[in-house]
Specification:
CATH architecture of the largest domain: 3-Layer(aba) Sandwich
Distance between the termini: 49 Å
CATH topology of the largest domain: Rossmann fold
CATH superfamily of the largest domain: NAD(P)-binding Rossmann-like Domain
CATH class of the largest domain: Alpha Beta
Radius of gyration: 20 Å
Bound molecules: 1,4-dihydronicotinamide adenine dinucleotide
Helix content: 40-55%
Shape: globular
Number of domains: 2
Number of strands: 8
């Protein structure tokens, strides 16, 4: 049995932590000694409305269990909201070490019926929300030479899912966001990773069918807690997690087809080579991919 991963004195902002997955993350990390800002606007699944009680109730739960937490009800969807959320951490605990970008909404519609009022708020909460909160925390993390960022993507974006062009775009964008933060944060001991969970929450309770019983939200928090911990080495990585299983999702590049006289016809003719996945490499940043080009073009 390895040593328990504790968070003594580390300060975590967890967005959307008034229910669902975020609440579980907050409870687990607080139970291990993290000082937690429980952020939640408290609206409906589609992002309408608000309820200041959602964050407050989770703070009460944490305190009853002997932990330390404060509630924050700002929206992640604005620059001011992101700034205020991080300020809550500074005001209450004097620092910020961990950001868990978890707040989310759904406005599903097939693409031919997608309208700006369904598109924009989803991008604003998931993608811009992560930007607003993380960018407010970033200078503190750089200054102290320490930070952990965990963002919440989804298989809907990484793999594709009907009716979720808005959500999928925002979620896959968080992968790109994270990979750049991983590169830029490396010299300051800032690690950034992504999870792609499946769990039974109010967001998914009608969608999971027979899987619902197996995928309680509590199964997602262990990987978030690990990625938020001081001992976390991985950065820029993506982890699928559901119901007690966790696995890396990676983007590989095959050896491809190289031809100095490349033409549409030669591509068509060699399609099997173009798409061959045997012998793939997994670049961890753009520079690695340039290395792949050099190998085949020299
Ligand atoms: P949830 O609806 O229970 O939790 C989302 C929370 O975010 C809510 O408490 C909501 O009030 C809060 N929120 C929404 N807009 C906000 C804003 N502007 N500012 C602050 N808080 C806001 O749903 P769940 O499932 O716990 O979702 C958590 C995250 O996990 C989301 O990002 C979701 O997209 C993601 N996810 C969930 C999956 C699942 O199977 N449950 C699958 C893949 C991703």
């Amino acid at each position: 049995m390895s040593e328990a991963l504790g968070f003594d004195g580390k300060v975590a902002v967890i967005t959307g932590a008034g229910g669902g997955l975020g609440r579980e993350h907050a409870l687990m990390m607080a139970q291990r000694g993290a000082l937690v800002v429980v952020n939640d606007l408290g609206g409906a699944v589609d992002g309408t409305g608000s309820d200041k009680g959602a964050a407050e109730r989770v703070v009460d739960e944490i305190k009853e269990a002997g932990g330390e937490a404060v509630a924050d009800t700002n929206s992640v969807a604005t620059v001011e909201g992101g700034t205020a959320i991080v300020q809550s951490a500074i005001d209450a605990f004097g620092r910020i070490d961990i950001v868990v970008n978890n707040a989310g909404i759904l406005r599903d519609k097939s693409f031919h019926n997608m309208t700006p009022d369904l598109w924009q708020p989803v991008l604003d909460v998931h993608l811009n929300g992560a930007y607003h909160v993380t960018s407010a925390a970033w200078p503190h993390m750089r200054e102290q030479g320490y930070g952990r960022i965990v963002s919440t993507a989804s298989g809907a974006g990484i793999f594709g899912n009907f009716g979720q062009a808005n959500y999928g775009a925002a979620k896959m964008a968080l992968v790109g966001f994270t990979r750049v933060l991983a590169v830029e944060g490396a010299s300051k001991n800032i690690k950034a990773n992504v999870i792609a969970p499946v769990a039974r929450t109010r967001m998914t309770e009608d969608l999971l069918g027979p899987l619902a019983d197996k995928v309680g939200p509590q199964f997602v928090s262990p990987i978030v807690t690990y990625l938020a911990h001081e001992s976390c080495e991985p950065t820029g990585r993506v982890f699928s997690v559901a119901g007690g299983r966790v696995a890396e999702i990676f983007i590989g590049e095959g050896p491809g087809y190289t031809d100095e006289n490349l033409s549409p016809e030669s591509i068509a003719e060699h399609w099997d080579e173009v798409t061959n996945q045997d012998g793939y490499v997994v670049p961890t940043q753009m520079g690695d991919e340039i290395g792949v080009y050099l190998k085949y073009l020299s």
